[in-house]
Amino acid sequence: MSTERLLNTMRVQRAIHDMTQGKVAERVGVTRKSINAIENGRFVPSTELALKLSRLFGVTVEQLFQLPDPE
Length: 71
What we know:
With 71 residues, the protein is mainly alpha-helical. The protein has 5 helices and 2 strands, in the order βαααααβ. A two-stranded antiparallel ribbon has the order 1-2. The longest helix is centred in the last third of the chain and has 11 residues. The radius of gyration is 11 Å and the shape is globular.
């Protein structure tokens, strides 16, 4: 697995949907700490979790998560 940070729009999506990290975590079955780690680029979610998050926010996985541009 790459050590590159996975960019994401989690904070933006939470704000749009007026959801706390705790509420997102509850809805997708993980801890609030996991959501915080994803938002801060310290944890790359599994494919299943990425799909659950994208479904929760009503966006595609690509809209929620992006790879950084190569240098």
